[in-house]
Amino acid sequence: MRVMGSETEYGIHAPSAPGANATMMSARIIQAYATVTRQRAAGGAETRWDYTDEEPLHDARGWTLERSAADPSQLTDQPPVLDAEAVALAYGRQELELDGADESGSLLMNMVLGNGARLYVDHAHPEYSSPEVTNPRDAVTWDAAGDLVALATVRKVAADTNLPPINLYKNNTDNKAVSYGSHENYLMPRSVPFGDIIRGLTPFFISRQVVCGAGRVGLGQDSSTPGYQISQRADFFEAEVGLETTIRRPIINTRDEPHATADKYRRLHVIIGDANLSQLSNFLKFGTTAMVLSLIEAGQAPRIEVHEPVHALQAVSHDTSLTATVRLMDGRHVTALDLQWMYFEAAAKLAQETGVADAISGDGHTHEVLERWESTLTALGTDPATATSVEWVAKKSLLEGYRSRDGLEWDDARLGLVDLQWSDIRPEKGLYYRLLSRNRMLRIVDDADVTRAVSEPPVDTRAYFRGKCVSTFGKDVVGASWDSVIFDVPGLGKLQRVPTREPLRGTQALTEPLFRKHQEAGPFLAELLGRKPAAPRD
Amino acid sequence: MAGQEQQQPQARETETEVDVPEAPPAAPEAQASEATQGVDDLLDEIDGVLESNAEEFVRAFVQKGGQ
Questions:
Q1: Who among A11, A174, A440 is closest to B31 (CB)?
Q2: Contacts of A71 in chain B (CB under 8 A)
Q3: Is pLDDT above 80 for A437?
């Protein structure tokens, strides 16, 4: 359907160690997973990230931001540095030595996983970036696999009696004016004018929260107004278009970092979504957005322009009755559901024209996306409460149960706790998982498939090659990125960098025979790169 | 089929026991009424897993900025 992927920053909290350094805790999480997987790269425990092709200051509108003008948080092409003083202050120097620090005193900050994902410290959060997949079902699967990775790290830290237990939350705000993101990435042809993307996507993003919002107790960035809203992220958006992701957040992000052949592709970086536990919301988030991108590429996106998009985004989020209207530039007033139906109709028409939605000869995914999209919009339009597997609806229903049983106001701390604990990634504590275990939330992917995706890469993208290189030749892989794998082969004097710039190459079909044939990295690389095995240097 | 649900509970590969669902798979249409019936039961269960001292717990959850 389309190459896509997710990024999840987890909220992190050690209740028994208030004030613990967040970057330090995040590093502990990465360290814990290295211990769980016993993964060791040639350079030690860490698979270093290859920053060669990172271009965080390239703007899709055709320019590059000066480094001096960038917010420090935008410089993601530099490895994060954990301040040794901060570490020592938080945990003591002695513990550093016991906790996997290398000789330089730096802690584990990055891993490339056998499933093709990246697990790393992103400023003050542990972040899981899923491998590239080709359809929304796989996007849900490998995103949920990230939650199991996070769960394994939390268990590992909890088992160590010398460390304070760490909780991880799949949410997007602390309700005290701080937000952290969950991003989506979609591969697009470079030939599509960026202005078309802005025009086509903005009304869609204003409205899609009604199917994929995760729900939030509190209005305003600091929750100063009591209430409940649809989206976790909406109140944190302040601009229509821009390069930033942590300040002046824009509805359309312009980061132009293709991680692929740059003159053929762009990677559309979407920062407006909520982190989803609900599989239905997550499936629709990826599936419908991919279809709208196809509409834009075909020049068939609905011609809609919303007046004051940032204001409209927040107005939609604040209206759980789904009856509020936003004003269009042509004078019409429409609801978010009206906007969604316009996109649905256009997407269904295009899918019919191209045949991708055919149940037999189609792409195997578009049919399901359209069916679930239509039935969800119908339910939301009849009575929002009946769309029981939409994440914000399910959470609201639980909160309303508390409000009616115990007579709680929206600013009651217990409702804040329900909101937070909804997203605790431990099944025994996370309230989403309590509902899932009672079959109150829809399962779209099999639990067994999610479990397998913790260690297995998708078979139909370059993530297969990356993941298999890590799991097969881990000790010889010193670095990797979305578009490279770097080997340090014993006996060879120099590093071997294998570029992987085509997202749909490096698949199982293309490379599995090579992995089967070679148990050693040297001959594997020699055949892959079409050379005779290089003789070890003197 | 639209709304066809996969309701088979399957063991997660974690150290945690996940409760065996009490009810057989329900059609989406039937879920709304079941949700009402089971709400007290559900709240009782959730009371048992909620962190103690909600106010302090929520106040202490302070994050640094992210992407």
A1: A440
A2: none
A3: yes
Per DSSP, the three-state class of A172 is coil
DSSP category for residue A365 = S
| Phi/psi at A137 (5° precision) | -65, -45
Does the beta-carbon distance from B21 to A437 stay under 8 Å?
yes
Instruction: Kindly give, in sequence order, each residue whose CB lies less than 8 Å from that of residue A448, ignoring residues fewer than 6 positions away.
Output: B10
Q: Check residue A87 and give its pLDDT.
A: 53
Q: A413-422 and A391-406 helices cross at what angle (nearest 10)?
A: 150
- Residue A98 backbone dihedrals phi, psi, to 5 degrees: -85, -10
Does residue A12 contact residue A377 with C-beta atoms inside 8 Å?
no
Q: What six digits make up the tokens of A449?
A: 């498939």
Pick from A38-47, A113-122, A181-190, A409-418: least confident: A38-47
ipTM at complex level: 0.89
Residue with token string 């993101």: A181
Q: Are strands A11-13 and A167-169 parallel, antiparallel or unpaired?
A: antiparallel
Residue B16 has its nearest CB partner, among A246, A428, A451, at: A428
Non-local CB neighbours of B10 within 8 Å, separated by 6+ positions: A446, A447, A448
Per residue in A444-461, pLDDT (tens digit) is 999 999 999 999 999 999
- CB-CB under 8 Å, A398 with B42: yes
Cβ contact B61–A151 (<8 Å):
no
